Structure prediction request, 96 residues.
Amino acid sequence: METLNALQVYNLRGRCRRGILENDLLLEKFFLTYQNGMSLDMQEGLLQLMQLDDGILLDLLLGKVHPHQVEVPTIEGAALKTLELIRQTILYPIPL
Prediction:
């Protein structure tokens, strides 16, 4: 599995900045957890999720909305797997 280098992760992190602080905080926790092993699939999934409206993204991250309830764009494949990884980082603390 090919992983992103530090510069690619840095650039992706910048592209994932959102208009809602809560989204930024949740995504930052994901980046802190996976920054040394982020795969191309994770990158693809994040970029797909970033196409969503901020409010819908927040609801997805918090589990208030099921991915199949989002119609445009459809949440599937890499985006669905990445969403699950983000949700896991929200539920479980970052190991020290």
Notes: The chain has a mean pLDDT of 90. The radius of gyration is 12 Å. The CA atoms of residues 41 and 78 lie 6 Å apart.
